[in-house]
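User: Fold this; tokens only.

Assistant: Input:
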Amino acid sequence: MSEISRADVEHLAKLAHISMTDEELTTMAGELDVIVDSVKKVSEAVDAEVPATSHPLPLTNVFRRDEVGEVFTAEQALSNAPDAEDGRFKVPAILDEE
């Protein structure tokens, strides 16, 4: 068993401003305990002779050639836009400008 206690979970929940019931705190402590133990088991399996892998199966490049096909004109692209201005999509500002 790892060393994650109910008090640790309660402390983390308080720091994250998450309200949890006593039952939720106990359940979460057990679940986090299992996760930490699982990570420890995987860490123990690491050996200098075992090469690191990024994916368990070999991957092949599935890209296709980049060929120019049919393209929209600016007018076609903007034809269904809710709002456009000067040949561009017009969207609401999300940042305050000073």
